[in-house]
Design brief:
One of its GO terms (molecular function) is protein-transporting ATPase activity. The chain is of the alpha+beta class. Helix content is 65%, strand content 13%. The chain folds into two domains: 199 residues, Multidrug efflux transporter AcrB transmembrane domain (Multidrug efflux transporter AcrB transmembrane fold); 90 residues, 2-Layer Sandwich (Alpha-Beta Plaits), CATH 3.30.70.3400.
Length: 340
């Protein structure tokens, strides 16, 4: 009795809304749910439009092609190397630093490899000949010697298999998430979680399509990491919502969601901020090789933080989540068993 009175004393109500619960401020997040829903829909539609119009710029991992690693005696300028390759007929070649300033990783599209040799992609002589030709071109404009470190070729069929397997892996991850949340919480929570995850993935993919950035296996790994990160935030908020439905008796669904998000807000922002610190370090100091990987994670963490606050909770509101949904089902014959 005294405990319930103390809880009531720590709850403040203004204009019919709970503004403070258990001594902590409650922010009215759901007040802006319609505006947030409109913004999310606009972002998703824009992302889908970018994917339809531009498509994803698949990297060598998915399209196939040749990858050549070379070492310079003196560090070259990336722009000069790209110009040399274009002048020599290697249009569309991607050049990034690999490990140190003296090491370069050159990715040639599949059509370039086909122009240079008509042999099979599995032929070691064909692969080596492309690497030797690239090195001979680079030596002409290099200030010092250029050495061939390694050369690898990925066939178009292998690239297509990687692309298809990656897409299936992403769909499978969403299905497993939906099944887990449905078993762990309730089916309405699983729908909210999957909607939030789909929202995050589509926006990240749309961002890459809009800016026409290379989409390779590292970016796919980043997208899958975004799914896990966003799910973690969503689970934390969902668990608090379920707990508060059972704990806070005299409150509406909107008030309970506001209380739950307010209670987890500090944890959500601190986790996102510390994660972004690491990702910003990778973005600015990690080199070009992981540039798109860290960029995809940065976009995903920002969007995932937003979706865990608004998209998942907003979906629960649309589905009409109630306190009764949190109650365990009554077993048949339970009343008869309790009778003397």
């Amino acid at each position: 009795m005294s405990e319930s009175k103390s809880k009531a004393a720590e709850t403040k109500v203004e204009d019919g809304q709970i503004t403070e619960y258990m001594g902590k401020r409650v922010f009215d997040f759901m007040r802006w749910r319609k505006l947030a829903a409109a913004a999310s829909i606009a972002l998703v539609v824009a992302s889908i439009a970018a994917l339809v119009v531009n498509g994803l710029q698949f990297g060598l991992d998915f399209t196939g092609g040749t990858q050549v690693e070379v070492g310079y005696e003196k560090a070259p300028r990336i722009e000069d190397v790209r110009s040399q390759l274009v002048d020599a007929g290697y249009a569309g070649a991607s050049v990034v630093r690999f490990g140190s300033d003296n090491e370069l990783l050159i990715k040639l599209p599949p059509e370039v490899a086909e122009e240079q040799t008509q042999l099979s992609a599995r032929d070691e002589e064909a692969t080596q000949s492309i690497g030797d030709e690239v090195v001979s071109v680079l030596r002409q404009g290099a200030d010092g010697d250029v050495e061939l470190r390694r050369v690898e070729m990925v066939g178009p069929q292998i690239g297509e298999e990687l692309r298809d397997d990656g897409g299936l892996g992403m769909l499978f991850a969403l299905f497993v998430v939906m099944a887990y949340v449905a078993l762990r919480f309730q089916y309405k929570f699983s729908i909210g979680a999957v909607v939030a995850l789909a929202h995050d993935v589509i926006i990240v993919l749309g961002f890459f399509a809009l800016l026409k950035l290379d989409f390779d296996l590292t970016v796919l790994a980043a997208v899958l990491a975004v799914i896990g990160y966003s799910l973690n935030d969503t689970i934390v908020v969902s668990d608090r919502i379920r707990e508060n439905f059972r704990r806070v008796r005299k409150a509406s669904t909107m008030e309970i969601i506001n209380i739950s998000i307010s209670q987890t807000l500090g944890r959500t922002f601190m986790t996102s901020f510390t994660t972004l610190l690491v990702l910003w370090a990778l973005q600015f100091f990690g080199g070009e090789l992981i540039h798109n990987f860290s960029l995809a994670l940065i976009v995903g963490v920002v969007v995932g933080t937003y979706s865990s606050v608004y998209v998942a909770a907003n979906t629960l509101m649309l589905l009409g989540i109630t306190r009764e949904d949190m109650m365990p089902p009554v077993k048949e014959g339970a009343e008869l068993e309790e009778m003397p």
